[in-house]
Amino acid sequence: MPNWGGGAKCGACEKTVYHAEEIQCNGRSFHKSCFLCMACRKALDSTTVAAHESEIYCKTCYGRKYGPKGVGFGQGAGCLSTDTGDHLGLNLQQASPKPARPSTPTNASKFAKKMVDVDKCPRCGKSVYAAEKIMGGGKPWHKTCFRCAICGKSLESTNVTDKDGELYCKVCYAKNFGPKGIGFGGLTQVEKKECE
């Protein structure tokens, strides 16, 4: 039968999908509004979709339906996932229970140390997390604290200098710590004549 409607048919609703609203997955076309997980109905995109033959799922539901089962699989290492997916309409085959492996005890002091050992900003003393970290002078800084200690100018890797654990722009560093004298940012010709 010829395709008189113009575009391809949607893999979910079987209606015509026009180019402006088309999302393709595994050679099939979908409307943007139909590109949903077949189990939980969550909206999908290219980073969250997992396809199995003609079915599309979010990665979580795909893992529940087609992923490995038993001890050590599921939500994290060393645990038994008891989520069967029934609330999502997934009919999962029950694998025969495997004998539990002896688990190694976690080192609580390592975990506690990792949680407490967060870098501190030298300027404000608060924790610096990866999303906001800028390295300068060998220390981690918040983006908002990465400023010249004298003039407050925002710094970048091209104009930052450090002295005694503090950050300075190149201009303030030269004025305060650089060589002194005529031509070195010290006294100007006019100021020198006034001093004489």
From TrEMBL:
PROSITE patterns: LIM_DOMAIN_1 (PS00478), LIM_DOMAIN_2 (PS50023). CDD domains: LIM1_CRP3, LIM2_CRP3. Gene3D superfamilies: Cysteine Rich Protein (2.10.110.10). GO terms for cellular component: nucleus; Z disc. It comes from the Eukaryota. SUPFAM superfamilies: Glucocorticoid receptor-like (DNA-binding domain). Residues 8-68, 119-179 form the LIM zinc-binding domain. GO terms for molecular function: actinin binding; metal ion binding; structural constituent of muscle. The keyword Zinc applies. It is found in: Nucleus. It comes from Chloebia gouldiae. Its main location: nucleus. One of its GO terms (biological process) is sarcomere organization. This is LIM zinc-binding domain-containing protein. The keyword Protein transport does not apply. Keywords: LIM domain, Metal-binding, Nucleus, Repeat, Zinc.
